[in-house]
Amino acid sequence: MQKSKYLNIILAIAILVLVIQLTNKNERSERQTLTTAESALDTLLTKSDTAMKPFKKKSLGVRSEVYPKPAFVIGTYDKSGNPNIMTAAWAGICNSNPLSIAVSMRPATYSYGNVMESKAFTVNIPSSEMARYVDYAGRLSGKDVDKFKETGLTPVKGEFVNAPYVKEFPIVIECELTTFHDLGSHRQFIGKVIDVKVNEAVLNAEGRVDVNVLNPLIYGSGNYYETGRWIAKAGESLNDIDGKPFVPDYSRRYANETLEVIHNRKSVRHFTDQAVSKGQIEALLKAGMAAPTAANRQPWKFYVVTNAKTLNLLAEQLPYAKMLSQVQAAIVVCGDMDKAGNLKEQGYWAQDCAAASENILLAAESLGLGAVWTAAYPYEDRIKAVTQALDLPENHIPLNVIPVGYPTGEDFPKDKWKPENVVWQ
């Protein structure tokens, strides 16, 4: 009896020790799993935030790795009054009052002597479409060739300084030489800005240059680049400093810019009171007219509505277009039945106008604008409301109304990818 009692006690102790060991093992396993999960999360955060990466840097010595560099074209007259242009990347704003631009040139350049002689120069800012002119002006010397003649560009005598500017360039700045500094290989010329001339097409409604429309050319590592799309407004980093991202990330980033625009397009229904410019609207319309169209009929007609009374009227009468009261412009995409001709009954006009509408929406996204498709066709009451509000002719059928403006940032793109919607055969 006594022996059996001792055996029971020993068995109980053994069981207790086993339970303790198993518990400790589970706790260690849970801690290890948690540590692994936390480590994985840290890795994920590190991958998503480049500021957290432990950068390993390599010394390159003394090199001009400053990006981006401007791609300016400098206009000057030589002693005989002949106009010349040269490309300069060693340039930029150097003072605010008086507003001044610094341009550095080697003594061997033809423009160097021209600036010393005329005491003036112009800064011509190209769009990305003008890369060939910028490259040509930077490869050849004015000593050997008349660059205006060879490129077909038009020299225009400066209105305020003794220097020519390039008529075709969207922005030209007339500068008066105030001082210069010998820095070593280059002489830095400081020019006081006397006047700035800008093509109206690249100005927004507030009279400021719209960089997305201008699309200025920039230089880096021996190549020319476009400036890229709008990311955020200056000063947004001050909005939240309580642990949230300083600058809201409104978009997903893709290596391919076209795919980025497509995937970041969203239906914007919340707009600021900032107006869009005529140049921006024209850019959207050009995108619309680049859409595919059956038999190249191009059976579309675009109405640009900027009248506040009309916009408010449409906002009241169209059930899903209340945001029209927030914007200062809208594009109404209509089908022109005369252009549709014998294809009218097949309904190709609606497909063509839909393709044009999608192009407009994508173009708006690419310019940093917001837009949304609000339907008119095929609803008879909506078609009637738009037709009466705009006094449309009988042969123009409104497909939709697209409000256009600057987004507040409240609307986000949706991930609509669903593999189950794809059938592979």
List keywords for this structure.
425 residues; alpha+beta; Pnp Oxidase, Chain A; 11 helices; flat
**Run of helices and strands:** HEEEEEHEHHEEEEHEEHHEHEHHEEHE
Percent in helix: 25-40%
Strands of the largest sheet, in order across it?
Answer: 3-2-6-9-10-5-4
List the uncertain runs: 29-50
Radius of gyration: 32 Å
The fraction of residues assigned to DSSP E strands is: 15-25%
Q: Examine the secondary-structure arrangement and name the CATH architecture of the domain at 69-220.
A: Roll
Q: What coarse outline follows from CA principal-axis ratios?
A: flat
- Mean pLDDT comes to 88
CATH top level of the domain at 69-220 is Mainly Beta
CATH fold annotation of the domain at 69-220: Pnp Oxidase, Chain A
Write a short abstract of this structure:
The chain is α+β, with helices and mostly antiparallel strands and 425 residues long.
